[in-house]
Amino acid sequence: MTSTLRQVGIDIQDAEENRPLVNAIKADNPELTIRHLPGLLKLQAAGRIVINRETVESQLGREWDTGEFQLAIVSYAGNFSEWDDDQIIVSWEH
């Protein structure tokens, strides 16, 4: 029996200040697909999306608090299965 992983997604405002965040998410999730819509970037992946504070900080060139993520997101599909000082994980809780 083959099981397919459900897609999770994050919609992020398409703004200059969010580009380093999107680049960091792409770096940590090589299977990620990004659709460009007017004013919006739709990020999707099968199973889960991981956002690592360390990767975002390297893209931003400054310290980043994971709470700042709330300023960039418009909506999401999935659950925040982990959200702490170092990492945010969006997945479906089965």
UniProtKB/TrEMBL annotation:
Extract the Gene3D superfamilies matched here. Monooxygenase component MmoB/DmpM
Gene Ontology terms, MF aspect: monooxygenase activity
Task: Look up the domain of life of the source.
Answer: Bacteria
Please name the InterPro entries in this protein's record: MOase_MmoB_DmpM, mOase_MmoB_DmpM_sf
Q: Do you know which Pfam families this protein is assigned to?
A: MmoB_DmpM (PF02406)
Which family is annotated?
Belongs to the TmoD/XamoD family.
The protein, known as: Monooxygenase
The top of its lineage is: Bacteria, Bacillati, Actinomycetota, Actinomycetes, Pseudonocardiales
